[in-house]
């Protein structure tokens, strides 16, 4: 039963926002605040510093934009500064602030590298209230005293972990030398690495910590699957899944920039419409890749975590983890790219036997059902096998071996045996039996390590039985393949 008070608190009307702002929210189509908004907005309105952690796509922009818009005084100066890692994000935030502040006439300006300094100075002179800036260009303006009426009362550090990854932390600390002492700082981040915590310790005053943990936001609209494969089968596994899944748009996350490039090149050579996105590309190329993906000129984006952080792309049907992600936070973060706005999404993780333990850890942390699937085989095997066999040129050596084989079996038997060898070679991914063997192996290893943990192993045994039951249930499920 829904508690009346719960219901009351989960409405924008109860967060301390005024009519004009509520009208902007309504017009933006937001009916209920997201958890991060519900928790952060009242605290920000109380003029407290905050450290807010929530995964991508949870509405962090509005969480800081709404209370800031509410508190603007229209005093002809720049009242709020939002620092964000990339130009794309700056523009995205500017759009959102403009949209939400439409009925109170909020004026914004974007400041980022790549645009002419003269043009930016002209825009800054038009008395914007909220400045959204990337670190490098902002510091450049500040050092050269190009910004007049610059007395922000609010400073937002958006996507702080990405700013760290991009090497902006020193720049940010330098920026703070140019800011008023009495400033309310709002630090937002999807993950909370130590360097960010340290930065927060240095610049924030008695911050309120808000953390929306991954388990709070596990999305029921995302079907999470994993496929067991061998190390050398990754790209082939992706291709088979691309061919059998009903893909509208997908993001394939790789660990390295090179991997992203290589997989993108391979996919293009096989006729798929893909684009790579990573930090080595210049701003313009990244921007055009993202735009092309948004407009569906390409439906596959092969990306690294950093390059794709924070981007708001709504109709991604599938997310692939080319490797198991480094930790649960990154996992949750990545899969949150799909299943947005009430649409169903599929998150696929490729796992090798060596990565299996990491998978178990994520499964444990995230507390959701990651289900085992098998790489589809049949369709590929029947169709392409016949083609490939018929097209194969006969090797001289083959005559010799055939002559010998004839002494042992008849022609049809020989053929069937050879096809079986071929099929075995073409099979990719581990079968369920392989996984059982792997689990047994892990158990034996663990027992060797700690022979006294009988109880634990008994508990684990019952968990295994549970997952066995789950797997059986899945087998009877029509959607299994
Ligand atoms: N309360 C809400 N109701 C519906 N949609 C929302 C709400 N808050 C934000 N959104 C939308 O969700 C998307 C993701 O929000 P964003 O602020 O970019 O997330 P984050 O910064 O956490 O990654 C945006 O399209 C935004 O307009
Ligand atoms: Mg964001």
From TrEMBL:
Q: Which CDD domains match?
A: DEADc (cd00268), SF2_C_DEAD (cd18787)
Ranges where the record places region Disordered: 442-481
Bias (Basic residues) ranges:
471-481
Domain Helicase ATP-binding span(s) in chain numbering: 41-210
Check the record and name the Gene3D superfamilies matching this protein. P-loop containing nucleotide triphosphate hydrolases
Q: Which GO terms describe its cellular component?
A: cytosol
User: PROSITE patterns, from UniProt?
Assistant: HELICASE_ATP_BIND_1, HELICASE_CTER, Q_MOTIF
Q: Which residues cross the membrane?
A: none
Keywords of the record, alphabetical order, are: ATP-binding, Helicase, Hydrolase, Nucleotide-binding
Q: Which residues form the Helicase C-terminal domain?
A: 221-381
Q: Where does this chain carry the motif Q motif?
A: 10-38
Report the sequence similarity comment from the record.
Belongs to the DEAD box helicase family.
What is this protein's name? ATP-dependent helicase
